[in-house]
Amino acid sequence: MKLSTKHLLGIKHLSQEDIQLILQTAADFKGVLQRPVKKVPSLRDVTIVNLFYENSTRTRMSFELAEKRLSADTINFAASSSSAAKGETLLDTVQNILSMKVDMVVMRHSASGAPHFLAKHIDAAIINAGDGINEHPTQALLDAFSMTEKFGSLKGLRVAIIGDIMHSRVALSNMYLLKKMGAEVMVAGPPTLIPTYLTEAFDVKVTYRVKEALAWCDVANVLRIQLERQNQPLFSSLREYNLAYGISRTLLDSIGKSITIMHPGPINRGVELDSDVADGKDSIILQQVENGVAVRMAVLYLLRPTPQ
Amino acid sequence: MKPILSQQQVLLTIKRLAYQILENHLQLKNTVLIGLQPRGVFLSDKIVSELEQLVPPSSITYGKLDITFYRDDIHKQLHHANRTEMPFSIENKEVVLIDDVLWTGRTIRAALDALHDFGRPKKVELCVLIDRRFTREYPIAADYVGRAIDTFPNQKVMVYLQNAQNNERVELLENGV
After folding, report:
1. What is the pLDDT of residues B143-166, one digit of tens each?
2. Of A2, A80, A255, A293, whose Cβ has the fewest other Cβ atoms within 10 Å?
3. How many pairs of residues across A and B have Cβ atoms under 8 Å apart?
4. What is the third-level CATH fold of B8-153?
5. pTM, rounded to two decimals
6. Contact predicate B109/B141, CB 8 Å
């Protein structure tokens, strides 16, 4: 029982069996999290560094909690308050940390491919917690876990990914995962935020009309507009985006079927999602966050170092 | 291959273990039976169905415990986890752990650790179908033993209880063959 990979750099490199193993192990850890003592000693002898070169609330806390629930020792690193601000390179920083006998690296970086670069130079297991606009594998896994929990299986499930597809690592990881597991995917958003070559790379449907995507799907995974990654204006204003692509209660009601609403967070209320939809009965946004800890425990457990 | 228990012997032994547990835990009022995943559960299922003939089924508290995340060998090898089902408190209860084979004692050590995370039992006992004597690596002994046997480390005890329609048996394999 083993993953086919030493690192978790992206969903792209995982097999269907890997994904199934992670989701199944996550279900077992979810059971652990419902016990009176929400902790197991599995990673007692493992030290993990959380290397966050980019801001994060959910992912960092979720990883840290997962590590603690597995009894690992953890150290945290935030780029803004570290020697990276003095000009130290990524590789130097990591090699210095690893020389203090650290076994695993959880990394978020604004440069796409940063964890892949690191994997070529160091031995420790690397878990990608989001790299630029490339991948965010644990988010896709927890999305898959949450959907499986609700629908039983991903096979044949219709998932719409709505919003800023161009700049979203969540969208890319989700597309890889959903297609590998046999789900159907439609992406929706303004033409400026959907890569033109997308249909050549993936077997996904593309629409520029949100209503069409909603009418088609069982699940709508709504993404945040990533203004921090947009170097030029790609739509005229947030208000206009909300009017054309935002999901409101009125829009959902006009479709007349129940659609499960997901969002990786942080939500910009009133932009991509209105509050009464985000907090409504079909929203599983908070369950996603809850499942995140179990999924990350599974990933850490399955990638734990084995002595030579 | 050397037979240890025939089908008739397995069924009689399980019946005896059920009676012995009942002897020490009359009415099973404050008692909790816990089968260890995965293979101990096949034995505990059978013991529980024996007990259901002897006491009202509602008085039996029965759970299943998976100890995968508590193992001391996960740095060598990862095992598949199984479902833990313990929808009750073990606080101040008399727990009977049930497993098929007691060998090194490491599984039971891990089970005691796992149990501890569910509360503080008043007492913990151990019930096994086969006790491989003189091979213990921890100071652990069983309270209820189906059959005690002497084995070499390279021998393997095979217990066939699940899906063994009328072919339940225990065998000893030489060098794992």
Report:
1. 999 999 999 888 999 999 987 677
2. A80
3. 48
4. Rossmann fold (3.40.50)
5. 0.88
6. no
